[in-house]
Design goal:
Blueprint: E1 3-12, E2 18-30, E3 36-43, H1 44-47, E4 56-66, E5 68-74, H2 88-100, H3 106-122, E6 125-131, H4 136-148, E7 153-156, E8 158-159, H5 172-186, E9 192-198, H6 206-218, E10 223-228, H7 232-241, H8 248-254, E11 262-266, H9 272-281, E12 284-287, H10 289-295, H11 302-308, E13 311-314, H12 326-339, H13 350-356, H14 359-364, E14 382-385, H15 391-399, H16 403-413, E15 419-423
Parallel strand pairs: 1-4, 5-6, 6-7, 7-9, 8-9, 9-10, 10-11, 11-12, 12-13
Antiparallel strand pairs: 1-2, 2-3, 4-14, 14-15
Helix pairs in contact: 3-4, 4-5, 5-6, 12-16, 15-16
Bound molecules: guanine and zinc ion.
The site of zinc ion has 5 residues, from strand 5.
Length: 428
């Protein structure tokens, strides 16, 4: 049956422009499958008379906004968040691979998956494109936990059949067999989706990348999820391993791994031909600014991406990223824009940062109109924010005279304390 929530309300129009109702009403109702979807949304005085029978939950002083999407995160790296290192490759060797080698144990994978989902939800993240590990048990644990919580989540078994230590290295043929059976088991089951996940080109043989590309063609609505052009040493290594490719990104094109729903984390060390390849194939970047700052990888070129016009959205990249909080990520993205790859830097408007972590990220993932917004038809995953969660937030948000000022105060001062509750569209 219909339900209504009254509070301030943030949504986006089709061009990504923020829509704000100080006194808003969000009306939700179950669809034919019993899943809660937005039925109506807007100004309370306009929307309420259309639904006189809907019981109203009133949250005075609160702000309802779409649940955030994290476009790239590693659930098995939850426990290595904050591991210092001299850059990406030593970080992988010293912290990441040892931590991930434990995820063949289903009990460990299940325990960490619960911690991971608790953290996402405490921080207002309702959908995440997530690396598991090379062990099928890690994917199984992830999807079972996500299904129990009715979440819209995407994950996949990591493919890495070379240049990887014992404990995480997989076998070419078996890795592709496992991937296909996990696709058949989990893809499009309720709100779950499968991502074909080569770790990055240097840790896969040609045969594994070719097999991944064949699966991506056979299952065209699955996602593809990998890393590219994050770190200068990594780029140099990839160029040595694949001398026939025009660029590191072009390696993936050559194996059929660039298409819509292909998501590449980082994309820092790109030229304009790489950016055009992203645009022409419909692939998307998961920009991961806290990770890039932490590992000293470089700065994603937001201006370059907009100039060429390809899809991107924001991501935490935990455990190289330093926070699950979308507010920390949006602030870091703002700072990276100021620093810029080319001078002078840009000043990304706060409503744009917010869109890049909600509706824009959903569009980049091929989930526009499904999640990331609170327009009619969207699944009702949303956050209830308390703009007075801390004394300074209360003071700054009360002083805000425009929507941009309000959103900027939330981005600069916000963290998990801002997220009073996260509401998930439950199947009845
Ligand atoms: N490149 C290959 N694997 C990884 C990883 O786990 N994290 C990051 N940030 N980059 C990678
Ligand atoms: Zn990553």
């Amino acid at each position: 049956m219909k339900k209504a929530y009254r509070a301030s309300l943030l949504r986006f129009d089709a061009s990504g422009r923020a829509l704000f109702d100080k006194d808003g009403l969000l009306v939700v109702a179950p669809d034919a499958q019993g899943r809660q979807r937005v039925l109506d949304a807007g100004n309370h005085a306009v929307v309420a008379p259309r639904h006189p029978e809907a019981p109203v939950t009133h949250w005075p002083g609160r702000l309802l906004a779409p649940g955030f999407l994290d476009m790239h995160v590693h659930f098995p790296q939850t426990d290595i968040l904050g591991a210092p290192s001299e850059g990406l490759l030593p970080w992988l060797e010293n912290y990441t691979f040892p931590a991930e080698s434990r995820f063949g144990d289903p009990a460990h994978a299940a325990e960490v998956a619960e911690v991971f989902f608790d953290e996402l939800l405490r921080n207002g993240v309702t959908t995440a494109l997530t690396f598991a590990t090379s062990h099928p048990a890690s994917v199984q644990a992830f999807f079972e936990a996500a299904q129990r919580r009715s979440l819209r989540m995407i994950s996949g078994k990591v493919l890495q059949d070379r240049h990887s230590p014992d404990g995480v290295r997989d076998q070419t043929e078996q890795s592709l067999i496992d991937t296909e059976s996990l696709i058949r088991r989990w893809h499009n089951v309720e709100r779950l989706g499968y991502a074909i996940t080569p770790r990055f080109a240097p840790t896969s043989t040609d045969a594994q990348l070719r097999g991944a590309g064949e699966l991506a063609a056979r299952y065209p609505d699955t996602w593809i999820h990998s890393h590219v052009a994050e770190n200068r040493d990594e780029v140099k290594w990839a160029r040595e391993l694949f001398p026939q490719a025009r660029s590191y990104l072009d390696v993936y094109r050559g194996f059929g791994l660039m298409r819509e729903r292909a998501v590449y984390a980082h994309c820092i060390h790109f030229d304009d031909d790489d950016r055009r390849l992203m645009r022409e194939t419909g692939a998307a970047t998961a920009a991961s600014p806290t990770s890039n700052l932490f590992l000293g990888s470089g700065f994603f070129d937001f201006e370059g991406a907009d100039r060429i016009g390809y899809h991107y959205g924001l991501a935490s990249d935990v455990g190289a990223g330093t926070s699950f909080s979308p507010f920390r990520t949006m602030l870091a993205a703002y700072c990276v824009g100021r620093e810029g790859q080319t001078k002078p830097g840009i000043s990304i408007p706060p409503s744009r940062l917010w869109w890049d972590h909600t509706g824009g990220a959903a569009r980049a993932l091929g989930l526009e109109g499904v999640v990331g917004n609170l327009q009619p038809g969207c699944e009702a995953d949303f956050v209830v924010l308390n703009p007075a969660a801390t004394p300074l937030l209360a003071r700054k948000t009360a002083l805000a005279e425009t929507l941009e000022e309000l959103l900027f105060a939330l981005i600069v001062l916000g963290d998990d304390r801002l997220v009073e509750r996260t509401v998930i569209s439950q199947a009845l």
